[in-house]
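tool_call: predict_structure(chain=1)
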Amino acid sequence: MICRASLFAAFLLLAAVPAARAQTHFSTNAPIINFRLPTFTPDGHREWLVRGSEARFASQDQVDISELTLSIFRGDDTDKVETMILAPSARVLPGESVVTGEDTIRVINDDFEVTGVKWRYEHKQKRVTIAKNVRVTFRAELKDYLQ
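tool_result:
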């Protein structure tokens, strides 16, 4: 048997829902602070993680990020970060798995570090294209490279 207090509480809750909806406003111009967008492989392993201090949804298919940190994982059980990409600003196209930027980029890997300006990262191909001011620093030993 349902007591009257429970019925009254349920009635108050149902009455409050339309009032709360009337006062809720959504805006695509409002930034998301401390943004995080992970993606996963079909097996459930982490594939990449987009983070930023602030994000704005420019459209349904585009997110503009401030202070981008893109962690690219191996996509296996190790959950190891393979490459990191850092940029002051970027545009993420989640449906295409593409990230682009007009400002500087810093790509960090165990074997090298690359910096430059005006760039594009295509996750499906695991390819970074940098158009200007490219500088590469190799950390790996290049055996028999200059013979």
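agent: Strands lie at 32-40, 46-59, 62-73, 81-93, 98-109, 112-122, 127-138. Proceeding to next step.
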